[in-house]
Amino acid sequence: MPGTWSPGVAFCSKKILRLGIILYGFRLTFSQIAEVGAPALIIDAIIVTVTLVGGYFLGSRLLKMDKETAMLTSVGSAICGAAAVLGAEAALKAKPYKTAVAVSTVVLFGTLLMFLYPILYRNGIIALSPEQTGLYIGSTIHEVAHAVGAGNATDTATVAIIVKMIRVMYLVPVLLVLAFFVVGKLGDSESKSGKKKIAVPWFAFGFLLVVMFNSLNLLPQNLIHGIEVLDTFLLSMAMTALGTETSMDKFKQAGPKPFLLAAILCVWLVGGGYALAKYLAPALV
């Protein structure tokens, strides 16, 4: 990569990335959350917590992965795919190749589930009501785009997308926890006073403020759609910038363990998510 590109790449992988996460809030409103109610909030919380905590300890302790890669991979499966990985990367200040590896796991297994869920549903293997199926898809699939694809293929898109966007909301508290996690576990730099600095992810609060503003319905839908298109472009720029700082040698350096961890988490999402949608959701209604 030409040296003259470095400032632009750094700008995209940091400033543009944070702006993209903030504008991501225009995809969700609090009224949408109220429509699906307590089952979505509780099941999403369980999925996010178990996937994040379990994935981190499984990756770092059992698979002996480095902590940053284990956390980034777990965040991608737990919350909202690449957008969550990018948000966590900004909070953890991880190396670009680790972020690229984690995003790759999201793309691979999220795409797999996008095709798998409709096949299982159409063949009666997913024995759930349409509402439960939408809850199942939204609470376990990786990307928002994957939720749209699987939801449309099973005629449960509305519920699936809303449940998925509620998972996106959990990105805010997770990033705050990660900010403290950096200090305690990942060796953040120390200040002159000897105390370790906490890198507060202020863009997470920006995301939450945008959700609050979007809930007021002050902007026309065509403008909201335009902002979503712009946001997709900004996040694409950020991921491209991360890609320019990554090489196949670094993928080899990461090895197969991130993909093994993502595969294990995928099995948990499919099996555990199904059990929660089938047995817990009706009890919460």
From TrEMBL:
Indicate where this protein resides in the cell.
Answer: Cell membrane
Residue ranges crossing the lipid bilayer per the database entry: 40-58, 70-88, 100-120, 168-187, 199-219, 258-277
Kindly give the Pfam families that the UniProt entry links to this protein: Cons_hypoth698
Q: Which residues form the signal peptide?
A: none
The protein's topology relative to the membrane is: Multi-pass membrane protein
Q: Which domain of life is it from?
A: Bacteria
Recorded hits in InterPro entries, A to Z, give: UPF0324_pro (IPR018383), UPF0324_YeiH-like (IPR004630)
Q: What is its main location?
A: membrane
Q: Which UniProt keywords apply?
A: Cell membrane, Membrane, Transmembrane, Transmembrane helix
Keyword flag Transmembrane helix: yes
Entry similarity comment: Belongs to the UPF0324 family.
Q: Which NCBIfam families match?
A: YeiH family putative sulfate export transporter
What is this protein identified as?
Integral membrane protein (TIGR00698 family)
